[in-house]
Amino acid sequence: MNITNCKKNILMIATGGTIACCHSEAGLTPLLSSEELLQYVPDAAKFCQVETIQAFNIDSTNMQPHHWLTIARLIEEHYWDYDGFVICHGTDTMAYTAAALSYLVQNTRKPIVITGAQKPIDMEITDAKTNLLDSLLFACCGKAHGVNIVFDGKVIAGTRGKKERTKSYNAFSSINFPYIAIIQDSHILFYLDDKDRITGDLRFFRSMNASVGLMKLIPSADAGLLDYMAGHYDGVIIESFGVGGLPSYEGGDFHHAIEHWTSLGKAVVMTTQVTNEGSNMSVYEVGKKIKQEFGLLEAYDMTLEAAVTKLMWILGQTKAPDEIRRLFYQTVNRDILWMQ
Q1: Whether the model pTM is above 0.90
Q2: DSSP notation for 161-197
Q3: Smallest Cα–Cα separation from 112: which of 256, 249, 13?
């Protein structure tokens, strides 16, 4: 689809990241402003009018939930003034931000696009200019909606993106879900064209609970870490092996640790360390038994980034176990589709 004749009003929100970096004695540092970034894509003026906001200018390693709330607040404040939004962001935590915004801004008929680059935009050879121009183009498209990552010519649902390469331009993949569209030579080819199926009301959320911990299992992992985390977090996500389960070492330490968590009424989510195809704790005894006994939540085909930010969003709304379960298994922006 060629939309170069479409003139839309776009708000570009800059947050820092590699795309805005310049060389310094300390290494690459985000220094370019939102206005300076826009100057590197003059062709955008052919199809849209862009205004810019500098939300902050940080390395995305330093991104935290309060930054996500700031971005969501800026979108809410300016939502009715623009046709679409483009967020320039560092790649390292981009998937977390895209997922978080999917929960903070729901049922948006307008596109919210997150993009960035593997190399700074002021370099002679860089992916930044193409990614930014593609993102502005997609934000102008009448078929576009929801929160998506645009990177290396691919459009990825905000809850399905994962950074899988540290240096290559094709850094992001869509996990357990097809690409929404591809962009090439100012043309957009949609694989999923479903804007007319949005039925819910536009909703903005203004709270998240950052008290969510992650435990990645390794052979001989100490269940005492879970006991320690119970005193410091309101929810925990356990990255297990394969389709999912917990070790049943002599002494039953993990059983006791999970019992401790659930007795406190705190959320426990099981997921898998394997990137593709998701979890299914019902397959093996090490998973099925403990899930049935304690009613653990399971991420199934969700990405880790979606599971983390969804739990933060949910715990920002409620602490009631039944409501936590209902919201966790409620599909938001394509985040969870396969459930046993």
Answers
A1: yes
A2: EEE--SSSS--EEE-SS--SEEEETTEEEES---GGG
A3: 13
